[in-house]
Amino acid sequence: MEIRSFHEPDSGTWTYLLADAQTGTAAVIDPVWVYDPASGRTDRGFIDSVLATADAAGWRIEWVLETHAHADHLSAADVVRAATGARLACSAGITEVRRNFARVFNVTATLPDDEPFDRLLREGDELQLGTLRIAVLETPGHTGDSITYLVGDAAFIGDTLFAPDAGTARCDFPGGDASRLYDSVMKLYALPPQTRLFLCHDYPADGAQPVCGVTVARSRAENIHIRDGRDKEDFVAQREARDRTLALPRLILPALQVNILGGRAPAAEDNGVSYLKIPLNRTIEELIAGDEE
After folding, report:
1. E strand or H helix at 139, and its extent?
2. Quick check: is 243 in a domain?
3. Is residue 158 part of a domain?
4. d(CA 176, CA 178)
5. Is the pTM of this model over 0.90?
6. Which range marks the domain in which residue 112 is found?
7. Sheet of 74-75, strands arranged across
8. Within a 13 Å sphere around the CA of 292, how many CA atoms are in the beta-carbon half?
9. What SS3 class is residue 112?
10. Quick one: which of 72, 50, 94 has its CA closest to 262?
11. What span, in angstroms and rounded, lies between the C-alpha atoms of 19 and 29?
C-alpha cells in the first residue's frame, strides 16, 4: 500500500492517492476542483497534478472515493472519472443530502435520472483495490452521510476529526449531530492505537506545514475536544455552543450544488451555460423545511 497526500491551500483540503503498488491500481480520495466564486471559473491545475502523479507512478485509477458531501470545496470526482474511467463511490446517505439541497436550490425536477454515483456504501461494505480490501465504516455527525475508508493501518476519516490542536468538525449542517459525532469518534478510537487517521482538512498558521494525519493513540491523548476520558454530554454541549458561533463556509452554496451530483456541474440551460444558484434572503434551514418568508 502506498499513500500520497496533496494539500489544496485555498480550501485547506487534503486529497489522497491510495495505491496497491503490486497491481498498479489506485483510488483518489476527496478530490478537489478549485473554484473562484468571484469569476465563476474552475481550475483543474490541482487535480491534474494528482492525476499526473498517478500516471508517473504507473498507477491506474479505478475508484474515486468521497468521505461525505463537502460544503467547503467543489468535488473533482467527475473530472477524475471522465479522465480515467474510474468508478465513483460515497455513502448511501447522499440520497438524503441530495433531497435536502434539491429543495434549497429548487432543482428537484432537473436532477439527473441516472445516479451520479456508481456505488452507494453502508457500514460493513468493502471495496477491492487490487489486493487491498477497503472496509467502510459509517461515521456520521459532521454530516449524516460521513463515512470512513479503512485499509490496513490507514483510515481516511473525512471531517470527523482534525489534528489534535484543532479538535473536531462542526455538526450544525443539515443531518449533523454532535452526539452522533461523539459515537463516531469512539468508533475510530476503538481501532488499534497505531492506526493512522488521514484527515480531510488542515489549516496551518503562516509558515507552518499542513498536517495530513495523526495516530489513534495521539488523538486519544491530545485532541483538544475529545480525548480519553471526555464525557459525551460535556462534548456535545461544547460542540453545539461553538457551532452557534461559526459562519457558513465560503463555498457552501456553490459546493453543494455540484457535490450532490458527484462533482458534475448543473445541467446547462438553453444558452449552453451552466449556472450556480444563490438563494436570496433565505437560510438553508428555511428552504429545506419549506418555510414561507
Report:
1. none
2. yes
3. yes
4. 7
5. yes
6. 2-260
7. 41-43, 32-36, 74-75
8. 0
9. coil
10. 94
11. 11
At residue 255, the pLDDT reads 97
Q: Enumerate residues 6+ apart whose C-beta is below 8 A from 16.
A: 3, 4, 5, 6, 28, 29, 30, 156, 198
Residue 197 inside a domain? The answer is: yes
Strands 147-151 and 154-156, by their bridges, are antiparallel
The whole-angstrom separation of Cα 100 and Cα 98 is 5
Residues in the chain: 293
- At 110-153, the pLDDT tens digits run 566 667 899 999 999 999 999 999 999 999 999 999 999 999 99
Residue 35: the pLDDT is 98
Question: Cell 449552453 belongs to which residue?
Answer: 272
Do β-strands 41-43 and 32-36 pair in parallel, antiparallel, or remain unpaired?
A: antiparallel
Q: Under a CB-based contact definition with an 8 Å cutoff, are residues 63 and 262 in contact?
A: no
Q: Which amino acid is it at 77?
A: A
**Residue in the block written with cell 489486493:** 131
- Count up the domains in the chain and report the number: 1
Phi and psi (nearest 5°) for 110?
-110, 10
CATH number for the domain including 212?
A: 3.60.15.10
Q: Is residue 289 part of a domain?
A: no
